[in-house]
Design goal:
The chain is an alpha+beta fold and 335 residues long. It has a single domain, classed as BirA Bifunctional Protein, domain 2 (2-Layer Sandwich). The protein is 34% helix and 23% strand. The chain has nine helices and eleven strands. An eight-stranded mixed sheet has the order 1-5-6-11-10-9-8-7, with helices on both faces. The mean pLDDT is 93.
Length: 335
């Protein structure tokens, strides 16, 4: 267990008032987000059949919560880690066209998560996906979309400030862009997470690009599944978070693999056996649209905008008693 406990922490809002603010942020953000990116809200599953290959494999070492069903013997169901693959499949099934997309309220369980101020085994995020053309698979498309998302987050800051002026956490006015290789070149002696802290503190808000592949050192900046993001066209939106004196990631996103990137990355990951799964076959056979997509943490965004010290202040989950007691001692009220 790793827990940061800021000195003299003041939660500003009571737990009941916090619940009111959570509802306001979530409802307001998703409407504005959908409008700005031309996304339609759709319903999405909490579980998928393992045989479809639709679950997010994360770093490849986390195991999903799974179960069997009475009416589907021989099939193993998995609680989703995210909807990274399901969304792209849905774009094709629902007939979305270039420039159109979808978003959904995604609820997941990641039972192998290391718990801290930002991480819970319960994951709630807006998962979104948008159709693009082959020639839009560029860094320019990626950056333009990141700027759109940042604009919506900044708009939410002003909305929250108007409604809860005593509680809002003020954000920087601009988002910057940097690659993982640029970070390694600048701070070769630091580990990747320390590099992220450094650049976030320096710039306020940054989109860290190109996550998943090996750097010049031969090491990876961080893990990414090989079968949804194109590692050369992805990244994370990270804010410097003064209440805890560290970075706070609110979104992981990217342009999705085409058939060439899929084959290359599966080979690097030693996961070419996935090419036999239905989702992966559709990618290789060009049966699914090219797309860009990602996830925006709902609780992370509430935490960021309200200046909370722990994600458990803005979501109901389960925590070790040791963490609950330590939070209580520092006026951090977990829901």
């Amino acid at each position: 267990m790793h827990l940061l406990t800021p000195t003299g922490y003041d939660p500003k809002l009571s737990p009941r008032k916090t619940q009111e603010a959570i509802r306001y942020i979530r409802e307001t953000f998703q409407d504005e987000f959908g409008k700005q990116l031309n996304l339609s809200r759709v319903s999405a599953p909490m579980m998928v059949d393992k045989a479809t290959g639709l679950n997010d494999n994360l770093n490849g070492v986390e195991s999903p919560v799974s179960f069997t069903m009475k009416d589907m013997p021989g099939h193993q169901m998995e609680i989703v880690h995210s909807l990274a693959k399901w969304k792209r499949n849905a774009l094709g099934e629902f007939g979305f066209q270039p420039g159109e997309g979808l978003y959904t309220n995604m609820n997941a369980i990641r039972k192998d998560e290391d718990l801290d101020n930002f991480h819970s085994i319960y994951v709630d995020q807006w998962d979104w996906e948008k159709v693009i053309t082959k020639d839009q698979r560029t860094v320019e498309t990626l950056k333009a979309t990141v700027r759109q998302i940042f604009k919506v987050i900044k708009h939410m800051e002003h909305e929250v400030w108007y409604k809860y002026p005593e509680a809002v956490h003020h954000l920087p006015d601009e988002i910057h862009f940097v690659t993982t290789q640029e970070l390694e070149d600048r701070w070769p002696d630091l580990d990747p997470m320390a590099r992220e802290d450094k650049i976030a503190k320096e710039l306020g808000c940054v989109f860290i690009m190109q996550i998943g592949g090996a750097l010049k050192s031969g090491k990876r900046h961080d893990g990414r599944a090989p079968d949804y993001d194109d590692w050369s066209l992805n990244g994370d939106i990270i804010f410097w978070y003064e209440p805890l004196d560290c970075k706070l990631e609110v979104s992981s996103m990217g342009i999705r693999v085409d058939e060439d990137a899929m084959a290359k990355q599966l080979k690097i990951a030693g996961a070419e056996d996935r090419l036999s799964l239905p989702f992966h076959k559709k990618i290789m056979d060009r049966e699914l649209p090219y797309s860009i997509g990602g996830g925006i943490g709902q609780s992370r965004l509430c935490m960021l905008l309200l200046g909370k010290a722990h994600v458990g202040e803005v979501q109901a989950s389960v925590w070790p008693q040791e963490m609950i007691d330590a939070c209580d001692a520092h006026d951090i009220h977990l829901l």
